[in-house]
User: Fold these one by one.
Assistant:
Number 1:
Amino acid sequence: MAQAPHPDPKATGPLEGLRILDLSRILAGPTCTQLLGDMGADILKVERPGDGDDTRAWGPPYVCDTDGVETGESAYYLCANRNKRSLALDIANPEDAAALRRLVRDCDVVIENFKVGGLAKYGLNYATLAQVKPDLVYCSITGFGQTGPHRSKPGYDLLAQAYGGIMSLTGEPGGEPMKVGVGIADVVCGLYATSAILAALRHRDRTGEGQHIDIALVDCQISWLVNAGANYLLSGQAPKRLGNQHPNIVPYQVFAVADGHAVVAVGNDRQYRAFCEVIGRPD
């Protein structure tokens, strides 16, 4: 298996000295640990022997070697896995699982995105590891969270975008539900996970206590409905697709022009008066 680049031993950052055990894959968890690595933490990414993270094969395009031959490592994998070291371990193998439990003693954070309860049988769940290391910060990322009626269901970015409502807002008026062009539910969940881990580390440094962070794709997606969500709660009316238009600000959209398209973003009346002068229509 190709390994992610080894961190520069001379590199520094605000999280220098922290070690993160990354049991996550795909995008949400790797986005989180990549950000922590960018800030100086030492990221140990655990991958399946032989195959590795699923996204290694999510191409094309793939990285090519100096002879122009594809290596089988995709651009998708590289987008979320810089500043990490890879370990090929099979958690279903008792010896490998035991090695991970020993490794946790020297780690500050564990992050995983297995199904709820999926790591308990390997002794890699929070309850077990917290007995070994009481000040451990343990972050679990799932589709629907550790509790509730959907806790056992798997979750992907597309499902979160659909269930959480953003697909009902995105796209042209009258069109079909439309997802955002990148895995935005995964990415924002990774951002929220990063923020939560930093807060938990602050708590640990003050109290000596670890924490179990429960973060879900759907919860995060609903949170970033922002004004559209608040509009619904206040009015009781479901928002509609507006394409590139804005529900409260005009003009704030794309216009076709002679040589392509132009974006006009006018945020207040003063800017609108200035805009009218610029286009020669003060009337």
Note: DSSP finds nine helices and ten strands in the chain.
Number 2:
Amino acid sequence: MEQSGTSALLQGAVQDLASGVVLALSGGDHVVVSGADADDIPSAGLVLPAVRVLGADLLLPQVLFRTLPDMAELAVFRKAVESFPPRADAAPAVRWSHWAMRRTLRRFEAAPDGVMPGDRAQEPDASWLDGASWQFLTHQLAVLAPLAVPGEDCAVTQAARRRPVDLARGFVRAVRRRDWQQAAGAGRWLTLLDGVPPELGLETGLDFVELMGGTDARVTLQIRAARVMRAAGARV
């Protein structure tokens, strides 16, 4: 029961962070992140895990609007990156999620050569996506939606770029299964890809996913990100 309660609290903390990102995407403000070092706040111990779960999307408004993050926000983000390195046996998606956070951190803490000191790690292996079924591909790309940002290239982005039709099929399947988080993540990728079948009706589909996603801030975050990128005509 205690573990279940902690999980529920963590999910609540993630939702709170996601709501902050949604507001920032709407108004260009900073995401308020506090309590990471406070011992007298009941949820303080969940701040860093929640940032790690949300991943690189915590700083998405700054990436999309080309602004600098608040220093306190950046410090919490950096601490989450340092506190939760992937284990040796971590799944590929976990490794890529961590890599995405490090890439975002490099963007804002880059040395003159564009590399954050002490961080010259190469991309994780992406061969697990080679030959993946369209269902599995959609699931993995939805999990890695924070990698779907304009102007950023990596092996995962290249895998998505090669299979827009398969991802469109996965988007439809997720909608039919009422998996709104997966549908929203897939829709965010599709917004950036060329070759998406026009009969998919992506814009209408995104509206429907947002409506059905209800109060799930993580769904709203993906849809709002897709709209911001679509309005800018962004591509990967």
Note: The two ends are 44 Å apart (CA to CA).
Number 3:
Amino acid sequence: PDAQRAKIQADTVCYARAVREREWPAMADGKGSPAPSVWSTDLRRVFREVEGKPVFGMLVSADHKRSEEREERLTQATASIPSAILWFLLATLVITVAALGVCLPRRNNRGQIITLTVITALLTTTLCIIRDVDRPFGGIIDVDPTAITEVQRQATRDFLAHHKAAELPCDDKGDRRPS
């Protein structure tokens, strides 16, 4: 129905904005944001209005898929290697390099110093890569919100085809506008 369609389209735009502008930056720190949940709840309220109609099953299925994908995204944002382990590996590296440095001969040691420097750089780089890969939403290997940006663009286009931008219940960052 038209009334529910407009509400679902508006909530979808706001959800996409909230994910892109609020949740994505929070995921760089391994956290989520409550902002998208506001719009998920709104969507489910509208779904109750169309319960029993042919479109209901499709909407619930799509919402379930959206929810699963959000959970997966949040799981990926959470570091699987605890910080204590990374600090332990770093301390082990420092102790190992220091011990090897003490064991180097005092003279004619240019080759050993170069080798120790290269090994230290490689092991340090390896630790940095492990940390960065474990946190894909921030750092050097940064997953951009490309797909959600496209969803937001399409949802906004679909909404604006029949409504004014002022009718959206959220601002550009996905926050609810004051009533």
Note: The chain has two domains: 2-79+144-167, 83-134.
